[in-house]
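Sequence only, no structure available. Ideas?
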Amino acid sequence: MNQKLLALACLATLALSACNKPAEPAPAPAPAEAPKAAEPAAPAPAPVAAAEPTAADAAAFAGTFRGTVPCADCEGIDTTLELKADGSYALSRSYQGKGDGSPSKSDGTWTAEDNGKRVRLDPNSKSEDDSLFEVVSKDEIRMLDVEGKKIESEFNHSLKRTAAAQ
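Reply:
I predicted one. Tokens follow.
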């Protein structure tokens, strides 16, 4: 009977020790540091430059773009495109050396496509086709053909952002 009691006591001790969480070792004390000579302050990290606004962010990309683009039967087309933060646009084209000199005007809505790499102008007049522009940078857009491809030409098809009025 003593052997049974002894075996039962061993099992109980083993069971109780399995339920107890082992004590975590205390962290080792940090070694004492000797006083250091004054060190020059580390240079502050360079500020992170703000990302350039893309056409996908309409409010940040909105602005006025101007340039003279090629014309098949005139000296050039003076073009002003105002992309407004509300998603609307106003386009003015003046054909050099043609007509009475008054610009043709159109308006509509603009949207960003292809993750902000392209801008589509959707005119309010349904007799006009959509126009596409490649976003070259925050300050330049370039006309694309009707299929959204680059126009292969030696002539300039870019419009540049104008300085904001003060």
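The beta strands are 63-69, 77-83, 88-95, 104-113, 118-123, 131-137, 140-143, 158-161.
Hope that gets you unstuck.
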